[in-house]
Amino acid sequence: MIEVALNIAAIAIALALLCNGWRLFRGPALGDRILALDTMVINVIALILLIGMIGGSSTYFEAALVLAMVGFVSTVAYCKLLLRGNIVE
Amino acid sequence: MIDAFAYLVAGLILLGAAFLLLGSWGLVRLPSTMERLHGPTMATTLGVGSLVLASMLHTRLQSGTWSTHELLILLFLFITTPVSANMIAKVHLHRQRMADIIEPAGIAGEPPNPGNGDWATFEAPRPSIATSTADLKRLPGD
Amino acid sequence: MTLADQLIIAPVVIPAVVAPLTLLAMLRQRGLAVGLSLAGCVAMLAAAVALFGLAQDGAIRSYAVGGWPAPFGIVLVLDRLSAAMLGLSSALALIVLLHATLTAADRKGRHFHSLFHFQLLGLNGAFLTGDLFNLFVFFEVLLIASYGLMLHGQGAARLKAAVGYVVVNVVGSALFLIALGVLYGVTGTLNMADLARRIAVSGAADEGMLRIAGVLLMTVFGLKAAIVPLHLWLPRTYVATMPVVAALFAILTKVGVYAMIRIVPLLFGKGAGALAWMPSPWLFPAAVITAVIGFAGVFVAQAMRKQAAFALVGSTGTLVLAVSCWTQATMAAALFYLVHATLAGAALFLVADVTMRRRGQYDDAAVPSPRFAGQQATGVLFLASSIAAVGLPPLSGFIGKLFILQTTATTSNWIILWATILGTTLIGVIGFARAGSILFWKASPNGADPIDSPNRSNADLIAPTILIGLLAALTIGAGWATAQAQATAAQIFAPQRYITAVLGSVPR
Amino acid sequence: MIRLLLPHPALSATLLIVWLLLANSVTGGDLVLGAMVSLILPKVTAPFWPDRPRLRFGGALVAFLAVVLFDIVVANFHVARVILIRRDRDLRARWLVIPIELTTPEAITVLAATISLTPGTVSSDVSADGRALLVHALDVEDETTEIARIKRRYEARLLRIFA
Amino acid sequence: MVLTTLVLLPFVAAMILSLYARAGRVAQMVIAGGASAVGLGLLLVAAPTVLAGTPLSAQLTWVPALGLHASLWLDPLGLLFAGLILGIGLLVVVYAHGYLAKGEATGRFLSFLMLFQGAMIGIALSANVLLLLVFWELTSLSSFLLIGFWRDRPEARQGARMALAVTGGGGLALIAGMLLLGRAAGSYELATILARADIVQASPLYPAILILTLLGAFTKSAQFPFHFWLPHAMAAPTPVSAYLHSATMVKAGVFLLARLWPVLSSTDLWFYLVASTGLVTMLFGAAVALFRNDLKAILAYSTISQLGLMVMLLGFGTPAAATAAVFHILNHAAFKAALFMNVGIVDHETGTRDIRRLGGLAALMPITATLGTLAAASMAGLPPLGGFISKEMMFDQSTHAVLAGQSWLVPILTTLAAVLSVAYALRYAIGLLFGRTHVGEAGTRHDPGIAMLAPSVVLVVIAIALGLIPMTIAGPLVAAATGSVVGGRSPDLHLALWHGLNPAFGLSAVAVGAGALVLWRRAPVADWLATRSAPDAKRMFDAAMRSAFDRTRRVSGVVHAAALQRYLFVLFAVAIVFATGATLTSGGVYTGSRPRIPASAVAIVAWLGLIVATAAVVIVQRHRYLALLFLGVVGLVIALAFVHLSAPDLALTQIAVEVVTILLMLLALNMLPKSPPTLSSIPRRARDALLGGVAGVGTGWLAWAVMTRPAVAAVSAFHWANSYAGTGGRNVVNVTLVDFRAFDTLGEIIVLGIAGLAIYALLEPAVRVRIPRSNMPHSPDRHPMMLATAARALLPLALLVGLHIFLRGHNAPGGGFVAALVFSIAIFMQYLASGFGSTSERRRDYDHALIAVGILIATATGLGSLVFDAPFLSSSFGYVHLPLIGEVEMATATLFDAGVASVVVGAVMMILAQLGHLTQRVARIGAVSDEQAVP
Amino acid sequence: MSLEFLIASAIAVLTAGGVYLSLRGRTFQVVLGLTLLSHAVNLFLFATGRLVVDRPPLYARGVTDHADPLPQALVLTAIVIAFGMTALAVILSLRSFIESGSDHVDGLADPDRGEGEP
Ligand code: NA
Ligand code: NA
Rounded to two decimals, what is the model's pTM? Predict the structure, then answer.
């Protein structure tokens, strides 16, 4: 039963990723694209959690954790660049 | 008991997946940048949140031990998602204000004035809000 | 393990300690850093000489880093070839470092000494390693150090040229990795000896992939060695960098040749069945064109550094001509010539450096200038280094070329080979004579005031003189050197001994 | 002495908890290591916490967290309905300008984050003088009510926590 | 010992002279002359033995591998030559002392001269053909230096280069010839080679050997058509001309022919090639000499002609002809050296060498005139001088020679040449010394001092003696030398002025008479010639050279233009062509039998994302923000793939590296110009796309072929088995990194450290910033409040996570590298959110130290194992039981990993901070315009 | 579709894009190209260990079915090295641009922008 749920969830996340991708490519605003990539990162984190459950291991946990931290940094850096034309000042 | 537990896990998984999908669907479906910003919050909170819970319970179900580190993912996301959204909104506001970049204003239109002065994106923040470490260094008592 | 056994790691460990130490010292006291750097170089030369002595008994020594036996861990292998290359690079390094210090060229940037030792680390590692992936790593070390050194002193031209140099080599590294991937995918190993063993027994189904891996490796090595048409990056890079750095780089192209010499007889040698001597069909014509293009460049070059750079290309062509015959005799000739060509190429760059620092605005351009301080001494050095570079007597280049000509006489392509070597020698002679007579004889305008040189010291003549002295020593000791080369070639052409030394006699 | 050893007790405590969470276990080794880490890290990062806010732990904090969690869940379902059902032209997206009484950047940030974390509202900017928050709401009927709700449920509690 | 001394003496002298270039002129002359004199003395001591038929020899092993030995011998031929070289050398040194002006670089001159002398002695004494080659090329080099001695004169430089090109080129042919000869004969030792004439001549290589050898000999001896360099070599100071370009060096070719005569001659090919070349040269040189007006040019062409004569004689292949050749070598050396010295005196005293502007010098310089007349007479072949005898012998031999089946051809032509040589010799004597008096424009116009006169006196005396008492002074030497040439005892030698009334005498008489006649009727021909533009070999050579130079330069310039795109295209193309070739050769690259893994929906979606994102990167390449966003997707999908495909460490690393790369690009991106114009044309882009496509398909197919093959995990099975047992680590990937292949990792962190240093250096200097600013004004909010606050909250958490990842790396995904990246990102996040603190200047030194200390820690960990008598980087681990804490694993690998982490933090922070610093500098410059832009 | 096909085709597309972009004339495009190429190479190297789902190379007694750890270690090294090289290439491009005023890979001037050296 959990397995079924996991499979359904995987497909749902796949669809979510497609949605993100669509927005990323479509835009139109740069903000939309950054948002899409940021959301994509969240979905990938979820996917990694899912993969961990499917495999029954916590091996991939750190990847998700680091991704959570790192995805934020790159999103913020993009935004900072667009706002200030500079990311370190 | 185990069965009920498994149902709970499966339910949480499905709930999480549903909100992840919904969040991303909102991103596709909603009309402009400001509206779309609301989607991912769902993905983070109830989406990832349910999955984290599911994962913790799942580990308990499988190996009989408690797994807690998943909570940290949630902690990180809870700290970072609002900031990401804030920054993207600021970018949107900034680019909207600049004459040469036409970004659709969205349903809510142009943001109203705060009353006294302007928003930080448009006007340099007062020194009363110390944010940079360079500023902090000069504070007394350090 | 005895101290002698542990000595094998010294050429890697010494720079690995000295480079960060000089980096730290440089933060505090420059003199200390320079002293450390020179001392490190001397220590390395001493280690290299000791290892060379060790290799004299003809035994091949394998050193399992981390204690993990081959093919599971990384091994360093000391044989005559690696010992000779270590000696060559250490000797050259010391001379170049001396020159850089004496001429204060090292003061143009903060990291010269650290980068220099990192460069040596990469070189020495590449010469010693018995693991193909580890070879890749050391290639990267020596490359990135060379980027740093190449940029030393900076300036627009250097920066522009560096972009090309870096990008080309990054792509080269990508090819290297693909080749490694294929080799690992097919054989499951990265140890060279183990690869040799497994390639020898590989089936027909794997032949195509192994062949591709082989040609990709050769492409990468050809790029490093600057063999036509993969040489395009070299003249620009070596001209743009400081000549003292280019002098050290004289050995970089030889690393590519070294890798060919190391890999081909071992992996694709006589034991490789259908893959035996796989790269030879195209290596030979490429070498012919390389020699011709290189010396044609010497013929027309309008500046000393450019001439030196093309001479390096030409000498690599000559060298690879001999290598590409893949016989023991020609390999001996190639090895002797390799040593010579490295020193001669470095000498050309150092002399260019001396000329530049004395000629003021005239730089190293082959245009007449007013007389300058030390013109005669510089001219003599130029004469000697160009004689060496083209291979005229009395310096060792002549012996090297004779050796090559003699040993290739019985190969099927000997007529083309001889015509190439002798023809390019003539072109080179004419080119150097032209440049030298303009630079050191012609004065313009006649009777003009000599160029005012702020630096009256003749310290910059020391290192090039030592190099010429080494070349002379190589000439006088050619009997010994050629015997060494022959013994080394014999070892290279007995790959089974290498395999046994690394993997043990019992096939696993 | 204590201050020298424990410059930031709250942070140290948080770090210890996080460390144990990370370790996924509570063994002696984890505790000792965690204690070491949570003593060292605050010192290392001290330059980044020059005027750390005074926090009141206790009922207010627990209540605040509970309220927020509850609101998040509720808001999730609300926004889900909006996304799935509401047509664009019926969407009542609004800008809310929330006047704030919180003064420290930390408190304002927590408020803004809370607002953002409940789906349907996003903190978009702070006024230059730090007295107002610009919030984008996806679907609100009445701006004033919503502003009041936010101030009541979140800011009031935060004012007590960040005393 | 004697031989070695003979050879080394001049070199030692040369070295002393060059080291003490500032010594007095007299001292220098004493050194140079002394060396020659001592050599000559040694030679005289050795002469009796050698002439008695016992050659001296000395063997010094040099390069056994090549058969190149320092084998020297002194046989009669060598004795003759060495004597010439040293004797004339001595005279030339004396002469030069008078000739060279006070300000000239006498030391340099004499050292070059000694260098040359040594090389020549070497040629004469070499008993090994390879050794001979060494000296042979040395003569070309020293000749180059001597011709170019007056370095400011363009004709000196050109003449030197031309001589070097021609003789050096010939020398290269000779190298080939000697190597083939050695190969055919089975030895490079002359004695052996000379004894194997039959083997060599039977060898299929013989024609090649002969032609290549002749190329060497003919270029050196200025035989037609390689003669043209010699007249231009006259740009050298006259002592050089006298020494090198008449008496000795140019005779090296003749010497070589004589040397190899036993092994190469007596074939038809030899006869035709050598005799006819000599004959043509003899005629040609004489004819040209007659119409030159520069005294040195006259002598130069006469030398060409005389060399032709000797070559022809050797070409005849008979012992008697060889005798004549040997004797003429001697004669020619005497009179030609004397003549050159004579010209030098005239030039020195009158300031001109143009025969038309000189005349009647006999009145002003009687001694000079007498000496000149006598030498010219010998050259003309007038009795009672040595030249007469050798010319007689030549005529005698020519009457026996049959060329092209015609027995009359050779006598007629040699007579014609002799006629011409009489004519030019007479012209020299009459035109210069007698007749109407012209005295040039400058100079003292009287006989010079003893130093310049004495040497020619000696030479003229010898020339006379060679005519009057030839047998006494040269008989034994010529006989013995001929003996060595012909390889055995010489034919009965009878040198005498009077051989009776034979055809030779008749021809001699005809030649003298006709020669006078020709000189008398010369003027109209000369006038006629002056109106014609005869083909000039030098001009042709120069034109050919210039055209070769221009063409080569153009081609080389185009090929080696600075064009990275071309370098890369060639590199890719080479790889593709070779890989394709390899595939075709082997018949293909095949799919293997390993069962495939079906792909899930998520995998397909992710794959789709990667493909589309890659395509998007390519499409939006010019829109940089977009390109970076899509690149982010690529990285994300790859990380996901690593997670899916059982590579958690890779996923972690990929994620961490990706963000640092993106940050780096963002930092740099801001300063690069926005949306630059497209550069390449459509066909070019199509070409590149095709190349990319082929490369892609090829690589993909290769990957497919590998992946579908059954795995060969021979090595990694060991890693799996020994990971926990041998190192205490469960994460085999990490164990591989810090243990099995820690050496790789050491290299890898060094790469990163160096990258940090190199980047630091690149951004360190006060960069001249001229960056086009974007039109878009910036938001004034430097440090958004939420970001700053959240980043501060995240810092300790992130550091904690980093520490956690570091500590668990040995057993679970993680390790020093990823931990370090997490640290770096956490710190960088503070810069991003709150800007640089005031410590940022100082922290760059920390980064240096972090890199250095990290490498030292890693290396020291490796060295630690040496103490325990284990190889470098051997790891050690154990479990320590601590109270309260329990079992703790202690592994040296952890220390190593700490070094890794230190380097990575140092390098990454250095890169990011340094770059941030640059952007700040840029921002400061742009700050003013910013303020204005925002309303 | 098999995972093998997905990976192989991904490598193909990354390689093609990398090669194409690295042949462009602007430093930024070249850097993009090198990044794609390095992704391709890393995937390739990784793939030589064959594809294994859900069997990370974490040692446990008795486990025999696991992904090949060695290529993973190699890829890690390759990633780090490629990062260093890419960083250097980026900064070098930037410095070269600052110095010569042109972002052309050979530092050539842009005729239509009026910058760079004559
Ligand atoms: Na929200
Ligand atoms: Na590694």
Answer: 0.94
